[in-house]
Amino acid sequence: MNYRHAYHAGNFADVLKHAALISILEHLRKKDTPFAVIDTHAGRGLYDLQGVEATKTGEAAEGYLRLVSERENGETLPAALKSYADCIKSFGNAYPGSPAIAAHFLRPQDRLIAIEKHPDDVDALYVALGRAPNLRVMEGDGYRELVGFVPPQERRGLVLVDPPFEQTSEWQDAGVALARAYRRFANGIYVLWYPVKLRADVNAGIGELLNAGVTKLLQIELDVGTGNDPRPRAEGQGPRLSASGLLVVNAPFGFAAAMEETTNYLARILTRGADAKATIKRIVGDA
């Protein structure tokens, strides 16, 4: 499967992932000391919500744009979603990917390392991010390159692993890469995004992290429900995704409570059916 995120930018999974990302970045900014962000699957950086791909699937309309509509109709957003909506709005008609969001929150003393495998997307990422001294765009396999960047010289920061899950070995590759990185940088914050497809794969990924010695692990899932959705799917895609999750290692203080409020709200606002639900589970530690 040749995954193209332009079809999915701004969907419910992006809302959850990017609201969590922004919440962590705001936490890191509370201290004056510098931090680093390492994005292993950076993508293109910016996606046109009025482009052919986005309008064909309508996924942004049932994700970020629905949230905007609710806000305009007088809904009071949870704090994490307010920060998220304010950030995305600042990009105009373009929906920012994770590296663009991270760059938005960097201070002069902070750094972003954005790794992307596909040459065309690397070129687009250079355009999206620019060439500021504290931004590094690198062409390469994020799983292989990650271990070479940890621990960062700042000794604090965030590692985001956001793969397309287009390979059958994706869960194994992600688990091995995160385990190797954690053994070198045990006090870092790690976020792994995943689609909820086979529960056995999710459990295997959790097991890989626990075997690496992780002592603080939080699991967040948002299921918007299956419903009856006749809209076209993206080219080459299977059934429309209805649930996604995050595994968060070393979640900051207050993060779990903020995400519980956020996901409960999203399950209500972005629902496709009565089976929509949000789940937060502390796998190990106080998270």
Report what the structure shows:
It is built from ten helices and ten strands. α1 (12-28) packs across α4 (79-89), α1 packs parallel to α5 (98-105) and α8 (170-184) runs parallel beside α9 (199-211). The mean pLDDT is 93. The radius of gyration is 18 Å and the shape is globular. Helix content is 38%, strand content 19%. β6 (157-161), α8 and β7 form a beta-alpha-beta unit. The longest helix has 17 residues, at 12-28. The strands form two sheets. The protein has an eight-stranded mixed β-sheet, sandwiched between helices. Strands 2-3 form a two-stranded antiparallel ribbon. It has helices at residues 12-28, 52-57, 64-72, 79-89, 98-105, 119-129, 142-146, 170-184, 199-211, 255-269, and strands at residues 36-39, 46-48, 94-96, 111-116, 135-139, 157-161, 189-195, 217-223, 243-249, 277-284. The protein is α/β, with parallel strands linked by helices.
Helix/strand order: HEEHHHEHEHEHEHEHEEHE
Whole-number radius of gyration?
18 Å
Largest sheet properties: 8 strands, mixed
Query: Whole-number average pLDDT?
Result: 93
* Strand coverage percent: 15-25%
Structural class: alpha/beta
Report how far apart the termini are.
35 Å
Q: Bin the helical content.
A: 25-40%
The unreliable regions are none
Total number of helical segments? 10
List keywords for this structure.
alpha/beta; 8-stranded mixed beta sheet; two-stranded antiparallel ribbon; 10 helices; 10 strands; 19% strand
Question: How would you concisely characterize the structure shown here?
Answer:
The protein has 287 residues and is an alpha/beta fold. Helix content is 38%, strand content 19%.
